[in-house]
Automatic annotation (TrEMBL):
Stored Pfam families: Glyco_transf_7C, Glycos_transf_2
Tagged with keyword Transferase: yes
Gene3D superfamilies linked to this entry: 3.40.50.11340, 3.40.50.11350, Spore Coat Polysaccharide Biosynthesis Protein SpsA, Chain A (3.90.550.10)
PANTHER family attached to this UniProt entry: NUCLEOTIDE-DIPHOSPHO-SUGAR TRANSFERASE CONTAINING PROTEIN, POSSIBLE GLYCOSYLTRANSFERASE
UniProt keyword terms in alphabetical order: Transferase
Source organism, top-level taxon: Bacteria
UniProt domain Glycosyltransferase 2-like: residue ranges: 97-194
Originating organism: Rubrivivax albus
Chain segments annotated as coiled-coil in the UniProt record: none
Family annotation (InterPro entries): Galactosyl_T_C, Glyco_trans_2-like, Nucleotide-diphossugar_trans
Name used for this protein in its record: Glycosyltransferase
GO MF annotations, alphabetized: transferase activity
Length: 810
């Protein structure tokens, strides 16, 4: 086809003629994006009326660019079933498919949907309802928007929003020759297609850099041919959280040879709303350290996914889409469920942990410079658990990189005292004593550098080793400079915002710093009162008491300290089970003297002399508290949700995570905890003997263990399997013969953690925690009554459909 030549038939308007000349030249030079921009200007001029010479020239250029003819509506699409397994359609019909997804954003969808249906060229609208609390299809019907052009794909049993999987389902089901990807809050103007001609080999997309103020979220909008979209595999399904999905798919579109054209900003509109849904899964509540801040930081979340997209196999048409079963199939409503246990592409936890680490390094480097990359991972993590982002500076990074003090003191703020080279040793000792005798905030570390080594040692010794000597060079970046002042003022000034402060002292500053605080000076904050939880008995009992104490400590502003002593009930350390920054001691003698000598003690262990189980814990008194318990504390702040917050937030140790990862747990599995040990005739072990309980409690244990015989579980499991929804089960039990019986009965349907240990050693307790975590991931729990371990699985879980207990429910 020959290009039109405006010079042969001059247009009456010189400006319009010049635009046509430039458009023709852009087409000849294979610059479709420029050609489209020029044709948009021609269209907006108002001088391109139907039947005019300008309109004819414009139509010829659009035809040369391969832009579809949208002057007449596309023929309607005939109803078509998807089939039992969600397929990927290989062919498309005429017209445009608008694909959108939502999870609990129906209000915006109902505003946007009429604008999509108003375009006669739109042959269908595919809406993926990603397990919204209130299903989308009825809302569309009630709004009078249902019809043959609207098809809802309802995905069941998805606990959180996953954009890549949701939109890819819509793309796979769409039948139009072209696809508009629009979020549920994007409206289209009636002239959208006229303003956005789509040349062959191009895609049209939003760009936050070019968007009008308040319209930055159009960045995720795009429009292209269906074949081009499927050729790159749609969205990258390795990305399952917020961020980088748009950048990734645009880069792959460009890499496939498609050219990007910016969407006409006047042809679409983003309905404003808050970002709560957009940042789903980021958490709520106050952030008291940098890791918690990062989990809600958009830049960090984007960088996590950018790293994943870089390190995982390239996402393209060779990758398999997530598999979905079709539960219901009608022309306007399809119900689906993902085969979560059969996902062909997963990001292993180790890889995600690496991605989070490198994203955090980059984010922290913005506040402390390249020194962030010098920190070993363990020290970097410790720093982020201790400080907020605004409190981290180059000083902290250098200390973490060197690994010396004050790192091991784990404080939020640092006062660095730099002594002049000739600072006298005796004066350094007196100066250290002035700091040592003062009341320090618990989140303050005081360090000394400079001077001579004897002077630094004298300073540290005089503080009773509460201060630390820094023997290496470190930058002061991030520390505020203080002028010499009395010690109390220096301490108070250091504990403001930021990483801390430094003060440079010469010998002639001694009298100023050594002087007492001026009259009326604010008192320096003293150590927070502590709540020490002395955890007792087995794993479930200990974690129950720990969660309860954490709830009380959080509600009352106390510092939680864990007293965790390995014994015959639980012969392991807390660090064997969890990676945690909680203060942990193994013996009461390890507590600081000022705490140990002033403890108000409570003892819930009823068999011990003087114990009083369920005694109310009084936190209104200004004193440190120690509670010795295997049970929840009696306090208004201790309730089920609050007690479980800490337990669900604890990160299992690497060894425990490896055990959990070794079990492939299918979706909708039944979890069964069969607790028969400690029943009558099975209580010979020291941890099950009558000496551990009152006579009444021991009799209750015998009663309920009899109700937890494996035969009762098998009868109930058989009934659940017969219903058809559950196909597999996970078993945790305390006797090896139980595993053998269940293997004989259920064969390949059974999942469990093979082991040779059935004691209370550290290795076995790791298996026990992994068992509890795996039980918590099942959807239906059959537990043993009067078992703290079944209770632990319930505390760790967030999505049980139902819990049934032996002897009461079956």
């Amino acid at each position: 086809m020959n290009l039109p030549d405006p010079a042969r038939a001059p247009l009456p308007d010189p400006g319009l003629s010049r635009l046509f000349d430039e458009a023709v030249q852009a087409v000849r030079l294979d610059q479709p994006a420029l050609a489209v921009q020029l044709l948009r200007r021609i269209g907006r001029s108002g001088k391109c009326m139907a039947g005019s010479q300008a309109a004819a020239l414009r139509a010829q250029l659009l035809q040369r660019l391969g832009v579809p003819d949208d002057m007449t509506p596309a023929p309607p699409l005939a109803p078509e079933a998807l089939g039992a397994m969600m397929p990927t359609r290989q062919t498309g019909g005429a017209g445009v498919s608008v694909v959108s997804c939502c999870m609990n954003r129906t209000e915006n969808l109902l505003k946007a949907l009429p604008t999509w249906l108003a375009l006669p060229q739109v042959t269908e609208v595919v809406i993926v309802d990603w397990n919204s609390t209130e299903p989308v299809a009825p809302a569309i019907t009630e709004a009078g928007l249902a019809g043959p052009r609207v098809r809802v794909l309802r995905v069941e049993d998805e606990p959180r929003w996953i954009l890549s999987l949701a939109f890819n389902i819509g793309f796979r089901a769409a039948r139009g020759e072209r696809i508009v990807k629009a979020d549920a809050d994007i409206t289209l103007k009636p002239d959208f297609l006229a303003r956005n001609p789509l040349p062959k080999g191009c895609f049209i997309a939003g760009d936050w850099r070019e968007a009008a103020p308040g319209q930055e979220h159009i960045n995720g909008f795009f429009y292209l041919r269906r074949a081009d979209l499927l050729a790159i595999g749609g969205f990258n399904e390795y990305i399952t959280t917020y961020g980088w999905d748009d950048d990734d798919i645009y880069a792959r579109m460009a890499g496939s040879g498609l050219r990007r054209i910016g969407v006409d900003g006047e042809s679409i509109y983003h309905i404003p709303h808050d970002d709560a849904q957009r940042m789903a899964g980021a958490g709520t509540g106050g952030a008291d350290h940098a890791w918690a801040e990062l989990k809600r930081d958009t830049a960090y979340r984007i960088r996590v996914n950018r790293w994943l997209a870089f390190v995982m196999p390239p996402w393209n048409a060779d990758r398999q889409f997530a598999p979905f079963d079709v539960l219901e199939d009608s022309p306007t409503l399809v119900r689906l469920r993902r085969r979560a246990h059969a996902m062909p592409h997963l990001v292993h936890e180790d890889i995600r942990t690496d991605a989070e680490h490198y994203a955090a390094l980059e984010r922290v480097s913005w506040v402390c410079g390249p020194l962030a990359y010098h920190m070993p991972r363990m020290r970097f993590n410790a720093l982020l658990q201790r400080k907020r982002l605004a409190e981290i500076g180059a000083f902290d990074a250098a200390v973490a990189a060197a690994g010396g003090p004050p790192l091991e003191r784990g404080r939020r703020h640092t006062l660095l005292v730099e002594l002049a080279p000739d600072f006298p040793v005796e004066r350094a000792r007196d100066l250290g004593a002035a700091f040592g005798h003062g009341a320090w905030p618990e989140d303050l570390a005081i360090c000394v550098n400079g001077g001579s080594k004897p002077a630094r040692e004298a300073f540290v010794d005089a503080t009773a080793c509460r201060a630390a000597s820094v023997e290496y060079w470190i930058p002061y970046d991030g520390l505020r400079r203080l002028e010499p002042a009395p010690t109390a003022e220096l301490v108070a000034a250091t504990c403001g915002n930021g990483s801390g402060a430094f003060v440079q002292l010469r010998s002639d500053h001694f009298d100023t710093v050594h002087a007492g605080p001026p009259p009326g000076a604010p008192a320096v904050q003293v150590r927070r009162r502590q709540l020490v939880i002395d955890t007792q008995h087995g794993l479930g009992n200990r974690l129950r008491a720990l969660g309860s104490a954490a709830a009380v400590a959080e509600a009352t502003g106390r510092e939680l300290v864990v007293l965790w002593t390995p014994d015959h009930h639980c012969d392991c350390r807390l660090a064997d089970l969890f990676e945690t920054t909680l203060p942990v001691v193994e013996h009461a003698d390890d507590l600081p003297g000022d705490v140990r000598d002033a403890l108000r003690r409570y003892n819930y262990m009823e068999i011990e002399p003087g114990a009083q189980k369920d005694e109310p814990v009084d936190t209104d008194r200004d004193e440190h508290i120690l509670v010795r318990s295997a049970f929840v504390l009696r306090h208004p702040a201790s309730h089920w949700e609050a007690e479980n917050r800490l337990l669900q937030a604890l990160r299992p140790s690497e060894a425990v995570r490896a055990l959990v990862d070794s079990v492939e747990l299918p979706q909708h599995s039944i979890g069964a905890h069969v607790r028969m040990e400690a029943g009558a005739g099975l209580d010979q072990n020291s941890w099950d003997s009558a000496e551990n309980w009152s006579a009444e409690s021991h009799a209750a244990i015998h009663h309920w263990r009899a109700k937890s015989h494996y035969s009762a579980f098998i009868r109930r499991i058989d009934a659940l399997l017969a219903e058809g929804r559950h196909q597999h089960l996970f078993l945790a039990t305390d006797l090896p013969e139980n595993y053998r019986v269940f293997q004989q009965v259920y064969g390949e349907r059974l999942r469990f953690l093979p082991r040779t240990l059935y004691d209370r050693s550290a290795a076995q307790i790791r298996y026990a925690l992994a068992d509890a975590l795996l039980l918590s991931r099942c959807t239906w729990l059959l537990g043993s009554t009067w078992s703290s371990f079944s209770e632990l699985a319930m505390r760790l879980a967030t999505g049980f459909e139902k819990v049934e207990m032996s002897g009461t429910d079956f």
